[in-house]
Amino acid sequence: MNPVVVGISGASGSVLARRAIEALLERDIPVIATCSSAAQMVWQEEMEEPFREALARWRESPHFTYHTPGDLKAPIASGTTPTAGMVVIPCSTGTVAAIAHGLSSNLLQRAADVCLKEGRRLVLVPRETPLSPIHLENMLALARLGVTILPPEPAFYLHPRSVEDMVEYIVAKAISALGLPGFDERLRYRRRGE
Questions:
Q1: Closest C-alpha to 5, from 193, 189, 180
Q2: 143, 170 in Cβ contact below 8 A?
Q3: How far apart are CA 121 and CA 26, in angstroms?
Q4: In whole angstroms, what is the distance from residue 61 CA to residue 25 CA?
Q5: Would residue 186 count as lying in a domain?
Q6: Rounded to two decimals, what is the model's pTM?
Q7: Is residue 172 part of a domain?
Q8: Can you tell me the distance from the alpha carbon of 60 to that of 123, in angstroms, rounded to the nearest whole number?
Q9: Which residues contact 153 (CB under 8 A, 6 or more apart)?
Q10: Domain for residue 184, yes or no?
Q11: Which residues of the chain have pLDDT under 70?
Q12: CATH number of the domain within which 138 lies
């Protein structure tokens, strides 16, 4: 199976990124990840486990590869490397803007640009509220190109009992949007909440 690219940008919601990588690795789906320096700073504020420790744990899997954001020679910077698509989770509005306008100042933005030019699935999980007209226009421009804009909205109708329930739902929904089998967000969410 082709790898899924997971981009982690500097928005609140590091727990979403951690769970997305873990959910993919639990199913032996190859992951190529990159994390911006701003995302690492947010991670430090939000998570009990330091990013370097999470990275060391993920690297124990033969299905995990990591590239620093400055590594523009990484395979995912080129369309010749086949992937199953990319999810940016969480996605800052600055990253949304960069992708919408074709900027590639780091590996995360370049990998997203590759998905666009190669017609691969791209899912953005934007974390910002309220949204300005600029944010909305950038998201609309991307949606018109076929990008899935998936804000991390909890499904209250499923009666979540914890933050973990909400994280499970959002991550499964984002991975489902890539077209990967086995991520039925509704069933997974209900099982966690029972």
A1: 180
A2: no
A3: 21
A4: 7
A5: no
A6: 0.94
A7: no
A8: 26
A9: 170
A10: no
A11: 184-194
A12: 3.40.50.1950
